[in-house]
Amino acid sequence: MLNQREAAEACGTSRSTIRRRREAGLLPGSVEDPERGWLIPVEALLGAGFTLNAPAPPDSPPGAGSAPAAGAAGVPEVGAVAGLRAELDRVRHEHALELAEARYGRALAENEAALLRAQLADRADHIGDLQRALQALMPAPVRAAIPQPQSPWSSPPAGAPGQPGIG
Predict the structure, then answer these.
(1) C-beta separation of 3 from 42 below 8 A
(2) 2 within 8 A of 39, measured Cβ to Cβ
(3) Could you report the per-residue pLDDT of 117-126, keeping only the tens digit for each?
């Protein structure tokens, strides 16, 4: 995690550029620290397209111009070992870039998926509204006529069973 000043120095850009990218949401994972200010993950910087400058090698002491470099154990490195170390550093740097790009791509894909899920839910609600409106516009189902019961005060129709007919 680098603060905005450190990130600007490492990327060879201005603090305002870093600040604008952070405010635009292009540096995911940035957090505000009360002591150091805004802290930005290196992966976010790499994912936003910035390239980090490799740290400069330490200054060699005067008179040590042609002496071989000392390794971790203090033993002078031979050309092959120095070349292998440089290759290892290069591969590590490439891997870090690929990892940062993959994380950034994953974050973008997750944001896109969340947006699509929200749109899908909105469309499902809209379809439900349209179905209810269509149902309200449909004619009522036809029902069979229900015979009305005869009141005891009305006369039954002539010739009804059990009733004397007029005649």
Answers:
(1) no
(2) yes
(3) 999 999 999 9
Q: Which domain holds residue 15?
A: 2-53+83-136
The single residue listed with the structure tokens 């490439």 is: 94
Domain assignment of residue 104, yes or no: yes
pLDDT per residue over 59-76, tens digit each? Answer: 555 555 445 555 555 555
State how many domains the chain has.
1
Look at residue 60 and tell me if it is in a domain. no
DSSP characters over 80-148: HHHHHHHHHHHHHHHHHHHHHHHHHHHHHHHHHHHHHHHHHHHHHHHHHHHHHHHHHHSPPPP-PPPPP
User: What is the rounded radius of gyration, in angstroms, for the C-alpha atoms of the chain?
Assistant: 41
Task: Specify the pTM.
Answer: 0.34
Contact of 79 with 28, CB cutoff 8 Å: no
Cα–Cα distance, 86 to 81 (Å, whole number): 9
Residue 102 covered by a domain: yes
Query: What is the C-alpha separation between 4 and 10, in angstroms, rounded?
Result: 10
